[in-house]
Specification:
The complex is a heterodimer of chains A (244) and B (311). With 244 residues, chain A is mainly α. Chain A has a single domain, classed as MetI-like fold (Orthogonal Bundle), CATH 1.10.3720.10. Chain A is built from ten helices and no strands. In chain A, helix 3 crosses helix 6, helix 8 packs antiparallel against helix 10 and helix 9 runs antiparallel to helix 10. Chain A is flat and about 75 Å long. The two termini of chain A are 19 Å apart. With 311 residues, chain B is an alpha/beta fold. Chain B is built from 14 helices and 13 strands. Chain B has a six-stranded mixed beta sheet, sandwiched between helices. Classes of the chains: A mainly alpha (244), B alpha/beta (311). At the A-B interface, helix 7 and helix 8 of A face helix 2, helix 4 and helix 7 of B. The site of magnesium ion has 2 residues of chain B, from helix 1.
Amino acid sequence: MRIGVILRPALVLLLLALVLKPAWFAPVFAPLVPEGTPVIYARSSLLSLSLSHLGLVAAATTAATLVAVTLAILVTRQAGEAFRPLSRTITNLGQTFPPVAVLALAVPALGFGAGPTLVALFLYGLLPIFENAVTGLSTLPPTTMEAARGIGLNRWQRLVQVEVPLALPVMLTGIRLSVVISLGTATIGSTVAARTLGEVIIAGLLTSNTAYVVQGGLIVGLFAVLIYDALVQLEAHLVRRAGG
Amino acid sequence: MIEIDQITKTYNGVSVVDAVTMTVETGTITVIVGTSGSGKTTLLRMINRLEEPSSGEVRINGESTRATKPHLLRRRIGYAIQGHGLFPHHTVARNIGAVPKLLNWPKDRIRTRVDELLALFSMDPEQFRDRFPAELSGGQQQRVGVARALASRPDLLLMDEPFGALDPIIRARAQDDLRRIQKALGSTIMLVTHDMEEAIRLGDRVAVMDSGRLVQHGTPAEIIAHPATTFVADMVGDVERPLRLLSLVPLSEVVEDGAATGDGLPADASLRDALSSCLWTGRTAVPVERDGAVIGRVTLDAIRARAELRA
Ligand SMILES: Nc1ncnc2c1ncn2[C@@H]1O[C@H](COP(=O)(O)OP(=O)(O)O)[C@@H](O)[C@H]1O
Ligand SMILES: [Mg+2]
């Protein structure tokens, strides 16, 4: 906890500097490349790449959350219980497919650009969110659920006022896992011309420019760590409020 | 008045509640007592239709419970359970106000009611209103659970082992509170327990269940003095029968003129308290007091006569 108080703002500042003022880091990265090669990626602004990268992840995660949570709610109702194995198979399928294969297969259908990447991220995000939402919704405290029925909440009221709020911390865990996976996976999206931070890394790999690779990797890594941390804090806050 | 009419619940061909019929008068406490698995919870849950009866019917003030949608019926019937079942993510006030909110009471009326109930359960509204259940002791959680069940002034309050999770001292206080509050509000209560002591202490009527059947339904004194079956006799406990009987009789009923030495007892204490006091201090009589003034005495002989009377 104590170390987080210092480390967190330090990492945020480092990330901001890397994205907004990349030139500051030229002396740091210079030893990584031979004399005369560019040290700092300049073909497009790192800020716009970052925003586009985060935007793709946000859009895909939002869609995956909506679908996975809806599915989880349906299969945890009495009437939908029979569909639980089937829906699990479907969401598992999304995970088993390697992201590169999804990208490759989606290109003919959706063309180059953000489309295939969104599809891959969406499919990849489904499983952890679905699994966690199902767990959260099927392990609610039984006396609370008995009381919720007993005092006269109808199904919808029980779902909205009791089940979802109580399952929320566990659902958030799934969303957190999904976001972190997507942040990494999105880098591959630049192979099919999606604008993500992967562009920097791939440019580095193609031209044997280690400075680019480190620069891109560092930014993606810092985003992942900080977003992960923020979501952990949010979960902890929700659990505390629920008296867990 | 609650009429339970030939109500039966069958699971896989086994009747876990078997043709139970009984009537509960408005403004009284009926305690359903029996061993674990005797069908008490199932009987109670059929009254608010958490469980649908296989056959038979329940009428509340003459109206069949089948005439109302289950969730609407439940808003008219209070329900308190062991382990309280409070909503952990809602404050005390929001928990207690849950049913009034479902019934669309205006906000300020809910607020007034919540504070009134907290005060009734000896919990300072200022201090407790905005707490979460996890910030309360076990006894306080349980009181909030009962307060929630009472909030909308229901026709009937169902309680399933509400004090089961409490330690003995807190439990005795909770029972006294319930009696006091029931008297003050005139509520009709059906309470389930496996503890005969609790049944005798709380019940105007006691209903004894054995393997799904109602084997006896009567006043605590009747149950103790004339157990209908050996099962009921076992539940009451042979050794303790005289003491249980004495615990039902207040001193005011047998007080006589005359003097006695030593510390007095209040007129609403029981003969069991008086006997205990006599034995402990080696006296043959104790003074009886009302509002601090001695109004007479109760003698050991009088106590003995009452213990033998119906046994
Ligand atoms: N949903 C159910 N399905 C099958 N049997 C049940 C169900 N609910 C309760 N029972 C059985 O009914 C009997 C009575 O249970 P219950 O009413 O909970 O008893 P009590 O509250 O007196 O302990 C028990 O034998 C229990 O196993
Ligand atoms: Mg029970």
